[in-house]
Amino acid sequence: MGSRNLTDTAISPQRGGSDSTVARTCQATGEALLAPGRNHRSRVDRITGSTGKSIAQSTEKPHIPTLGIGNPGFAAPGTKEQTPGVPAPHLTNVPDRVFVIRATLGGAAEIELARLAEQKTRNDAVRDFARHMIRDHSQADNALSRLAEADGIPLPEEPDAKQREIRDGLSRLSGPEFDIEYLRVQVQNHQRMAQLMEYVIGSGEDAQVQGFAAATLPTVFKHLTMARDLLDRVSVQNPQVAAAPPRTVSGMPTPQTPRPLAN
Questions:
Q1: Between 198 and 18, where is the model more confident?
Q2: What's the whole-number mean pLDDT along residues 110-139?
Q3: Cα radius of gyration rounded to whole Å, the chain
Q4: Among the four 28, 50, 73, 177, which has the fewest Cβ within 10 Å?
Q5: CA–CA distance, 6 with 65 (Å, rounded to integer)
Q6: How far apart are CA 211 and CA 69, in angstroms?
Q7: How many CA atoms does the CB half-sphere of 39 hold within 13 Å?
Q8: Buried b vs exposed e over 202-218: b needs ≥16 C-beta within 10 Å?
Q9: pLDDT, tens digit (0-9, with 9 covering 90-100), for 12-55
Q10: How many Cβ atoms sit within 10 Å of the Cβ of residue 38?
């Protein structure tokens, strides 16, 4: 099948929005996620009661916590409810479908970039990080695919134009230049994914989708911390590369200034 952009992906009409509404929202959400994030942890803690829940558990429907899950304000009149204020399973709205599509695209891109990093890097720490991304994102993507199938959400089969641009840009780099730019992209991607997850936690309607986001968000924060720390370390080891004007791959407007490393 030919390459398809996210905004061109066909979405089966469901409650909460038409095809064009979902496409426009997907595009707008992708742009909005470029803004600085807010404090995501407190909302997740209120929903899950614990940040230790694994990705694999996030789709176990009988055990999904309901405190804070569900969004009656986005439910259409007459919506069937599982409990008061919590719509019945598999009743999605536009934020649910936007999240599933964007998270699927993002997870697939993370795996592809991590495999590229495995091949190109000469830094053992960067290679270990990439393998960690492959393992965790493969697990999350499998869970997302099950949710999408249960909710009848068609998924894109190809990366979007921006993801292809990033992949192609990184493939032309090598050595420390590749490592630093790859890690910059990782910091950006995980910041955006954290914002996307809070978006569906606050605005979604499907308790299973929201439960997946709430259970997975702590892992995204963990990845973000790993990427930042490793970027600092590699930047200190290669100050001239880190201080050079950034490549257009990450789009960072200023040279990377590494934070002091802990003793």
A1: 198
A2: 96
A3: 19
A4: 73
A5: 31
A6: 7
A7: 4
A8: ebbbbbbbbbbbbbbbb
A9: 334 444 445 555 555 555 544 444 334 434 433 433 333 334 43
A10: 10
Residue 105 lies in a domain: yes
Residue 262, in any domain of the structure = no
Q: At residue 219, what is the residue type?
A: T
User: In angstroms, what CA-CA distances link 114 with 67, 125, 131?
Assistant: 36, 13, 7
CA dihedral 47, 49, 51, 54 (to 10 degrees): -90
Q: Would you state the pLDDT for residue 257?
A: 45
Residue 25's domain comprises 16-66+87-243
Cβ proximity of 69 and 86 under 8 Å: yes
247: Cβ–Cβ under 8 A, 6 or more apart, which residues? 169, 173, 177, 181
Identify any residues that bridge with 83 across adjacent strands, giving them in sequence order.
86
Distance CA 192, CA 212 (A): 17
Residue 18: C-alpha distances to residues 130, 200, 208 (Å): 38, 18, 21
**Residue 182's pLDDT is what?**
95
pLDDT of residue 65: 39
**Total tally of structural domains belonging to the chain:** 1
Q: Is residue 177 part of a domain?
A: yes
Cα distance between residue 83 and residue 138, in whole Å? 32
Q: Where does the pLDDT of residue 2 fall: very low under 50, low under 70, confident under 90, or very high at 90 and above?
A: very low
In a domain? residue 108: yes
CATH of the domain at 94: 1.20.1260.10
Distance of CA 77 to the CA centre of its chain: 31
Which pTM value belongs to this model? 0.66
